[in-house]
Amino acid sequence: MSNNPAPNVRPSLTYAAAGVDIDAGDAVVDRIKSHLRRTHGPRVLGKHGSFAGLFRLDYNEKLFKKNYRDPVLVSCTDGVGTKVLLAIEMGVYDTIGIDCVAMNVNDMIVQGAEPLLFLDYVGIHKVTPQQMEQIVKGVADGCELAGCALIGGETAEMPDIYKSGDFDLAGFAVGVVELKRVIEGGERVQRGDVILGLASSGVHSNGYTLVRAILKREKLQLDKTYPELESERTLGQLLLEPTRIYARQIVSVLNSYKVKHTIGGMAHITGGGLPGNVCRALPEDCDARIDTQSWQVPPLFRFLQSQGNVAEDEMWRVFNMGIGYVLIVRPYFAEAIADRLRHLGEQVSVLGKVVAGSGNVQLK
Known about the structure:
This protein is α+β, with helices and mostly antiparallel strands. It folds into two domains: 18-47 and 65-181, CATH 3.30.1330.10; 194-205 and 242-297 and 311-363, PurM-like C-terminal domain (Phosphoribosyl-aminoimidazole Synthetase, Chain A, domain 2, Alpha-Beta Complex). The chain is built from twelve helices and twelve strands. The longest helix has 18 residues, at 129-146. The termini are far apart.
């Protein structure tokens, strides 16, 4: 009888054992099929599950509403930031996708573009089909609100990158605008132009690292209602409110003035607040003079400021403070544009006007 020890038998490794479940990924593809399809119009070609999405840009005038005669493609990419950590903590996954679409298309329409298509990217610790379906459902909901097609995306299961329970969400959007209708940083803005502000739906998707620091330090509870918030909703529900999507409304207004250049500039109010974003729509010889008393700052912002002992300047630099989008318009058309936006469901405030200056924002 041999005294040699039995050879070590190494177990067979699989992708699933290493942390990536291909079967779960395939299940996700099947579950999200209907969510993609409900965003598709006749310009979307190809079948679900293809390696890339197909979108027809120029098309037969007899079959569709319009043609682009001198089209310029407009593209952007963005994510949701640390707001996803609140979604994870609350176990709510069907709204964060709306934020992802909003952060992209709200940037795009600033240039005067119509959103056409959207793709999403999810990096995640472990794919759970039910959770992924909820995330993509939110993206599809956002695409419907924006009037664009969700034609594809990518889910990457990476347990070595993301810890258990974590995921990240980003998106990529493409739109189109006629060359002569492009709105480019301040070229058409003039002294005397009126500044209109559209109400935000809350904090939107910027400043959540500061929000979470306030929550942690002050031990605030997401499932609790606070009298200072003046709402029956919990703090968590208010903080997770999706970013408002302004795309259809802005495109509708732009389409109402195909000849006259009534809108000189626009700004999506994201990180940097009003001071850091409205300046991007100004020429070098103009300032935007904004009256901060012209709208009511929502209680949520003052609650966060009070709880975190945040300085006033810091609040205006980090948060939108209740204004999510800004239009700079010709004085003669200001009232008509404001009325049309209100008719389309927006809360509109006249924030101020453009004055001589050096490309800055004056908050008064």
